[in-house]
Amino acid sequence: MESSTSASELGVPLTGARAILAVTVTTERTLPPTAAGRRPARTARPAPGRAARKAAPVLVRQIRNGIEESVHRGDVVEVDSDGRLVRGLGDPERIVNLRSCVKPFGVVTLIEAGGIEAFDLEPPELALMASSHSGEDLHVRTLQGMLRRAGVSQTLIATGAEGMPLDALTAARLARDGEKASPVRHMCSGQHSVFLLLSRLRGWDPEGYWLDGHPAQVAYRAVVARAFGTTPGRLRTGIDGCGVATYAFPLREVARAYGLLADPSAARANDARSSLAPALTLVRDAMLAHPEMVAGTRDRLDTSLMKAAPGQLVSKGGMEALRGLAVLPGRTAGTAASGIAIKIEDGDGYERAIWAATVEVLGQAGVLDAQALRVLARYHRPVDLDPHGRVGAEAIPEFELAPLGELV
To answer: Mean pLDDT across the chain, nearest whole number?
Structure first.
């Protein structure tokens, strides 16, 4: 049984539907009788003070020739702009690391500091700073132009370049030409440019900008705390793959933050998050207008989703199969904004489960119509092809979201 930090350990109380769906249990396997003289193997137990988490529901099944080869478990939650549960499946209080799902909120740090005016930033550049881009030439040109105007050297980008760029065609071209990818092609170079431009604007030494104690990280951390309705001192942090901090929250709080991104103006006046509205609206609109900057032009679900349903949602994925979705208001008469968060339990190294689950969730939530589902069919039921182009296996989403609002 897998153990996991509970929401209560982060000071989040469980009430109503949250308590119903987030029940944690501690179980111990009953061992079979053993032969004389043999001691039974010891079963793994949760660390002291940590309850074992109930197994997540199966969201996607990998089927080959009618045989279930593997399953992908996960959790889904949708909330309105106030954080009230709308629909979901599994544990809304599951603790996750934001990873790249933090990026749209982090751009606010530079905007509020006056970065748009200081560096003549354009919407495509804002979208790039919120991205996990594919490292294609359009991303590199945009990033280099922005850094050049600001008088910042791209050699300061401290992401590394291992495994980059994400775009297979670009990577093949670089390899053919004997060109080694530089950090500017790293999927997180846009986010790191926030720290570099902020340091330039404030007159801070850019060296070591990725360290927790650097003023740019302190400022970024403060904005993340505001977006999630907490304080910097209460944030639970870790080290992300690109070297900067990542932040842990219950899945429900990730959905709530994306609900804010969907409609920043909907935050109540007495909600401290309302101060983010002007800057966050600029980020949202930039991502909506330039989806190719948020991910890439080939085989990137975030970009494909926003193109299939233009003006209706913002999608941002993070490593280990986390995705935040900001569903804008007004899809149909009287439809309010909402935020959705999806997490695949096993990290989904092939991306097939998070692709299939995301499209299925948006279909069940009424965000994607029949035409959009047809356009997104290759993500909805991803196939595994053999060397001759024949379909060998298919990832099939099989779940039904529960109307959680009815349980409150």
So the answer is: 90
